[in-house]
């Protein structure tokens, strides 16, 4: 329609459910993935592992919002997100072009089940994610609280290609540069990346790594199988992965937890589809 303003010409205005934040930094990992940080309003409180709605102005002059997991821990001054780039995705076809200083909508009500409170106490915590399902793990493992609750923590990240291993250097270094959790992570964090469509030292999907014992490596110790008495599991990513792994866990005697009734494992899909 002639004369119709482009989405970027609508200024972002706060609403009762949305604040307007400023992009602080952007990092592109590859053609499919990027991460960025935004300002955090003083009133914004969340638990590490939760998600929130974020977005831009839609071409109808109304906010275009999508759910995103915080990748930063609850105490951080900025909010960090890890995002897919869907070429024809209504939001991410535009979101991938954001630059420092741009404005973005942030929902005022974070929520979610990938939080320590939804799990019963345990000894080993397994964080199993595909693709952008890594984001909540980056939040949880940078929060000292998780090291108070679990002796050992494993981050398992399944991706198609090597360049999809976002945060790989930081994870391989076990968060060595992190002043708050670096020391604890050095002894108690295990990073298990797997690349399913390119040559890499580990190639199996998560289900395969559960069955062949690969997940029970290094300081994770014994037993070399899932044990509902001591092990806790969080799942995030592809819905088919979640369904398949959840069924395996149920077969091992695990029950699903929620905020209202903690259990031995919790799930959250990282995208619709
Ligand atoms: C609880 C929850 C948390 C989420 N957290 C994140 C997050 O931290 N980071 C993130 O990038 N996305 C996350 N998403 C997905 C996100 O809400 C959007 O779907 C995504 O930003 C794409 O938006 P879009 O408008 O460009 O395309 P959409 O129309 O939303 O999606 C188009 C298609 O792209 C695929 N797709 C969308 N998102 C992803 C993804 N993350 N990984 C793989 N395929 C995908 C799906 O097949 C989908 O049908 C989350 C979704 C939910 C429900
Ligand atoms: N190099 C590329 O071309 C490339 C790379 C990344 C993303 N993308 C694009 O981004 C979109 C999203 O891709 P994505 O890689 O983030 O998500 P994805 O297709 O869900 O794959 C991410 C990881 O999850 C695994 N997985 C998928 N289904 C599973 C299941 N049922 N059980 C266990 N593991 C499972 C995949 O293994 P499998 O490989 O065995 O399926 C892969 O290791 C794609 O549609 C694609 O268009 C393309």
From TrEMBL:
Q: Does the keyword Metal-binding apply?
A: no
Recite the UniProt keywords alphabetically.
Answer: FAD, Flavoprotein, NADP, Nucleotide-binding, Oxidoreductase
Which EC number(s) does UniProt give? 1.18.1.2
GO biological processes: cellular response to oxidative stress; heme catabolic process
Domain FAD-binding FR-type, which positions? Answer: 16-117
Its required cofactor(s), as named, are: FAD
Q: Does the keyword NADP apply?
A: yes
GO MF? ferredoxin-NADP+ reductase activity; nucleotide binding
> What is the main EC category here?
oxidoreductase
Spell out the InterPro entries in the cross-references: FAD-bd_FR_type (IPR017927), FNR_bac (IPR033892), FNR_nucleotide-bd (IPR039261), FNR_type-1 (IPR051930), OxRdtase_FAD/NAD-bd (IPR001433), Riboflavin_synthase-like_b-brl (IPR017938)
**Catalysed reaction, written as an equation:** 2 reduced [2Fe-2S]-[ferredoxin] + NADP(+) + H(+) = 2 oxidized [2Fe-2S]-[ferredoxin] + NADPH
In the UniProt record, the signal sequence range is none
Q: Which family does it belong to?
A: Belongs to the ferredoxin--NADP reductase type 1 family.
Spell out the protein name for this chain.
Answer: ferredoxin--NADP(+) reductase
